[in-house]
Amino acid sequence: MVGLKFHTDLALDMDEFWVFGYGSLMWNPGFDYEEKAEAIIFGYRRSLCVRSWVHRGTEASPGLVLGLDRGGSCRGMAFRVSTAAWDEVLAYLRERELVTNVYLERIAPIRLADGRRVISVAYVVDRDHRQYAGALDAIEAAHIVESASGQSGPNDAYVFNTLTHLREMGIRDQWLEHVAGEIERMREAS
């Protein structure tokens, strides 16, 4: 077994380095990989539960972005990274995902579409972090999303873009679809 030298704080050895993506990492990983596969993670669900202070909002007027939150399961995409690129990819992911430390880096088992079970790096929401929005209803989430904007653009564009990519991958997220529907209703009413 190859030691996961960059991740000694988890004291885990891995034969392969897989990354699990559930949001923009699925269609925009930003790193080279040797294999890509649909995957499912159990014990976590995709949720619009993170107050965005950088990319889709500001600290004064936060938006909402996705996080992996406890409960259920989540279909996403897994990427196997070459041994030579482990350190570089992990450094990139930490810079991308840990901007405000609202996510926790975790090692988690996932099941690939072909039935293989592998260990992956995944970024889950820290429920104790002040950016954790918790369980919002779709109407409340829609009001936040509709009015927020950050360095990467309007928050509603993030939600609609995410839904487009999920649909292209054959993934339905009914709650996120409900949020998008509420945003559209708000626009029609104004």
From TrEMBL:
GO biological process: glutathione catabolic process
EC number: 4.3.2.7
Species, as recorded: Rhizobium lusitanum
Catalytic class of the enzyme: lyase
Pfam families the record matches: ChaC
GO (cellular component) term, any one: cytoplasm
Protein name: glutathione-specific gamma-glutamylcyclotransferase
InterPro entries from the UniProt entry: ChaC (IPR006840), GGCT-like (IPR013024), GGCT-like_sf (IPR036568)
GO MF, one annotated term: glutathione specific gamma-glutamylcyclotransferase activity
Keywords: Lyase
Coiled coil residues, start to end: none
